[in-house]
Amino acid sequence: MSNDNVVLARNTKQAPQNPFYSQTVAFSHYNHLSAQLPIDPLSGKLLSGSVTEQAEQCLKNIKAILTSIDHVMNDIVRLTIFVKTIKEIEAVEKVYQTFFSGYFPSKTVVAVDALPMNALVQIEALVSNGEGTIPKAPQAGDLIKLTNNTPLAPIDQFSTQTVAFSHYNNLSAQLPIDPKSGRLVVGGIKEQTRQCLKNIKTILESIDVPFDDIVKTTLFLKDPSDIDAVNEVYATFFPDSAIARTVAYVPARTTVAVSDLPMNALIQIEAVVSHGDGTPPQAIEDRHGLILEANNTKNAPIDALATQSVAFSHYNHLSAQLPIDAKTGKFVAGGVKEQTQQCLENIKTIIEHVDHVMEDVVKVNLYLKDITDLDAVDEVYATFFPSGTPARRTVGVSNLPQDALIQIDVVLGNAEGTPPILA
Fold first, then answer.
1. 277-300: b or e for each residue (b if 16 or more CB lie within 10 Å)?
2. Which residues partner with 257 through β-bridges?
3. β pairing state of 361-368 and 391-396
4. Closest Cα to residue 121, out of 90, 98, 89, 158?
5. What would the pLDDT profile of 266-309 be if each residue is shown by its tens digit?
6. Cα-based torsion angle of the residue sequence 279, 281, 284, 286 in order, rounded to the nearest 10 degrees
7. 329: alpha, beta or left, given left = phi > 0 and alpha = psi -120 to 50?
8. Helices 51-68 and 89-96: crossing angle, nearest 10°?
9. CA-CA distance, 98 to 102, in Å (whole number)?
10. CA angle 85–16–68, rounded 5-degree value
11. What is the pTM of this model?
12. Lesser CB count within 10 Å: N end or C end of the chain?
C-alpha cells in the first residue's frame, strides 16, 4: 500500500449526521456522499410532507455538504434517486432541476420497497474532487468534466448519458428504450436486457471507449426470478473482445430487486467505466495505458459472471457479497446478524487478498430485505467500521439473491493506482 493518497471523511452540522457513516468521503479525484434522507439537520427528524418537500430537503442536505467542502452542485457527476413510488419521479425532477444550472449529471432512478425512517425519497451524489487527496502534492484543481450525449442512445432532458471526470466515466442507468422510437423495446426480459446493454455499448462507442472497459455493472430487476434469462443475454456481451475473452474478464456486479422502474421497464442497467485518457489537463504520462486489474480469491464466493474486485486507477469496485460461506458454498446459519457478519467477512477477505484493509473502504451499499433489521445490522457493522468513516447507502428491497436477508457491496480506495501497460 502506498501512502500517497488519504481517505478524507468529513461532516458538517448543517446536514444530518449519523454515527455509523460520514456525510462525504473523498479519495483521489472523487467525493462519495452518503445517501441523503429528507431529515431536517436542526431537529434531526424526518421532514413531514409531500415527496416534493422531501426531495427538496434531500437536495438541500446535499448542497450543505458540498458547501462545507468548497464544492457546488454542478460538481456532481452522478445522482441516484430512490423513491417509494415511481409515479412520484416527475415531482422529484421538478425540484431537482431547480438545483442545477446549464448541466445535469448522469442519473439513476429506481423505486424500492422501503427507505430508512419510512422516507418517500432518498438521493445520493457522486461528486468530482479536482483538488485530489494527495498530501503536500500539486493537484489538478482545474480538471474538467467531459459530458457526452449521442442521438444513437436514449436521451433524457434531465440527465447526461455519460459524465467523465479524471479516470472514470459515469453512465446514466440505461432503460430498454429503442432510441429510434423512444419507446420500450418490444418483447420480454431477454429483449429488454439486450437493449439496455446495446444502449450502454452505443454510448461507449460514441466516446471511443471499448465495452470491456466497464469496471462495474448494477442490474436493477423488477422480478428477481428473471435473473437466469438476464444472465443468458448478459453472457453474450461479456467478455466482448478477444483480449478480454483470453483472460475471461467480466466486470464486478451487483443485482438489486426493485419495486418499479421508469416506463414500467423490467430491467435497468448502470455502468461505471474506466477512462484511461483522463480528463484535461491531466498529463499524458499520468493517463495513458492504465490497465484493469481483476481479482478473485477462492476464499470468498466466486461467480462466473462477476469478478470479485476490479481495480482501475485509484479505485477498486467490489461485487455485491451475499452471506455465503466460501468453504461450503452455502448460506451461513442464523439470522440477519450472522448474515451481515458473513457478508462483511467476505468483503474483508477480498480486500485483504488485494493487499488492502477495511480502512480503505470509501463507500458501502446495504440492501436489506427488511429495513427494520437496520439496528441489528448496525450492531455488527460497527465492529468492522468502528470509526464510521465510509459513506453509505441503505435501501430496503423485496427480494435478494437466494432469499438472503442482506447484501453488501463496497467501493475501495486504491492508493497505489493501476500500472500502465508495458511496451
1. bbbeebeeeebeebebbbebbeeb
2. 221
3. parallel
4. 89
5. 999 999 999 888 888 776 545 456 789 999 999 999 999 999 99
6. -70
7. left
8. 40
9. 11
10. 115
11. 0.95
12. C
